[in-house]
Structures are given as structure tokens and as C-alpha cells.
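Intended use. Records such as the Phospholipase D-like domain-containing protein entry shown here are meant for training and evaluating sequence-to-structure methods. They are not intended to support clinical decisions.
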Amino acid sequence: MDDDICSIGTANFDKRSFYYNYEMNSVFYDRELVLRMLEIAEIDLSKSTPLHFRKLERQKFHVVLKEWIAFVLSPLL
């Protein structure tokens, strides 16, 4: 955040991470560490490829079915 703060950990911004799972994040205020993490993020982004909505629309039925079942059962997990 603003090249001054870095949060590293396992928590996601969802209900499971906040209330059910044992997740942990650490917040760092060390400018050198923050800049190094930004460099690493840039390297990761340079190696990634964009995901377009059209590709998601063309998923096979069994993939969509598995995702739907996981979504329905997720509150029970």
C-alpha cells in the first residue's frame, strides 16, 4: 500500500478466511522489504497471461458442474 506497507499471508477476503479457517497475515512496515515484494510481484506478473471472460464461458460441462457443487457445499466444509 503506497510502497510503505506490505501484508503477506494466507488470508483471503472471504468469509471462510475470516471466520472458519485458521489464517494468518503479517503486516510489514520495512520499506526495503516492501520494495522487494513489489519487485517479486512484478516478476510474477511478467510471467503470467491474462484470463479473458470468453475463455471462462467456454468451460466444459463437467468443470462447471464440479465448481457449482463445490460452491453449494462450501458452507459445510
